[in-house]
Amino acid sequence: MSNASAVQAPERLGLLRVLGPGHVWALGVGIVLVGEYMGWNFSVGKGGMIAGLVACWVAGLLYTCVAMIDSEVTSTVAAAGGQYAQAKHIVGPLMAFNVGLFLVMAYTMLEAANAITIGFLLDTVAGMLGHTGLNQQPFIIMTILALAYLNYRGVLASLSFNLVITAFAFVAIIVLFLAVQFGASAVPLDFSAVTNEPLPYGWLGIIAALHFGLWYYLGIEGTCQAAEEVRSPARSLPFGTMAGIMTLVIAATLTWYVCSGLIPWEYLGSAGTPLFDAARVTGNSSLMVLLFIGTVFATTASANGCINDASRAWFSMGRDRYLPSWFGAVHPRYRTPYRSIVFLIPIALIFALGAPLDQVVTFSILSGLLGYTFMTFNMVMFRKKWPLDTIKRGYVHPWHPLPAVVLLVLCAATYFAVFLGYGTQLIAMLCFYIIASLWFHFWRYRFVKRGDQFTMPWPRPQGY
């Protein structure tokens, strides 16, 4: 048989490179900005207003280290899966499998928390209009299904949608801050609790507050999941990620300022939608409508980005046979990891419909925290194996290894903070990941084709 008549192997479909820096910013900030609209305020309940502010800034430092480390490594390892792709190239298969699970669980739990928040918000607004007892479950289900369908149809439309609604939600925070500053509120800002009860639970309250302080920024590392779909990874990923963390630090500080000045800390510490509640306290109907829309947009953008990121991590693990290869399929028309998107829908629904919000938030935070701990060792190994002059990097973060050391110390402090309030859940999650690791080591790893998983054209590591 001649070469001309030979049957050609079908071309392996890949993801489309259609995204720019703005989409990367929208993915990272879109996932996280919901943390300004809900969840962060539990840190105030743990330690008071001052503890909530310290947690905001300490978590901001932690995530600045995360953003700097991720910008360097991911602009070099430009592959779907983000930190999972980093781990398989730099550390090893078992670490890569665990990091992939950390990512999927963190984003899927965050998606569930967003859906819960949308249902709660609609129930609150219905109660304000005199319609009490709204059934939240249909809205939770509809939110997850609609956004999964949007992701199924294509990444460009999905993240362009995120760009618009994320920008609106961020502007809403700025408008609320300016409106309160210039007298649009019927209730003046009152920070007497800051001086009267600065630390109602003592210094231990600051440590406890770190747990939910992460919620201001949790998910910014999701920009890495777009590495295989951006047009210029070396430029877009560092720019989008660093611009994203700066946006979030500003939004987080303004959020704490407005909410702490308008809402008593005892109520703020347990509120479901603190920014919307702050707008209600102002008595300004325009601000109430604006922050209602902003809350819906922020939660929608976050859930949308979480579906994107969780499915990319699951898809990458399937493509490398860390999971069944069935999950590594790309849709022939839409060029999306459609099987991974569909598979994760019922998991998100189970937690959104059957678990309380604080438990879902904690599950997401703990999974993310385990991933951040990995980053510290990953960064040190990356610089040691491939020094700066051996491979081309799109971004080189300064002061190495200081960001990795600071990140590790802050992660250790946050583990202790989580243990103080959710020790049982922390131990249960660690047991889950240990069991999953044993399953991978003794069963699944036999199916992995080791030669196929290393895709970067790097030289041999130093010392090997």
From TrEMBL:
Key word Transmembrane present: yes
Localization per Swiss-Prot or TrEMBL: Membrane
Residue spans crossing the bilayer: 20-38, 50-69, 89-107, 136-152, 159-180, 200-218, 239-265, 285-307, 341-357, 363-382, 402-420, 426-443
GO cellular component, one term: membrane
GO biological process: transmembrane transport
Membrane topology: Multi-pass membrane protein
A Pfam entry, by short name: AA_permease
Residue ranges constituting the Amino acid permease/ SLC12A domain according to the UniProt record: 31-435
Keywords per UniProt: Membrane, Transmembrane, Transmembrane helix
Top-level taxon of origin: Bacteria
Main location: membrane
PANTHER family the UniProt entry points to: AMINO ACID TRANSPORTER-RELATED (PTHR42770), MEMBRANE PROTEIN (PTHR42770:SF7)
Protein name: Amino acid permease
UniProt source species: Kumtagia ephedrae
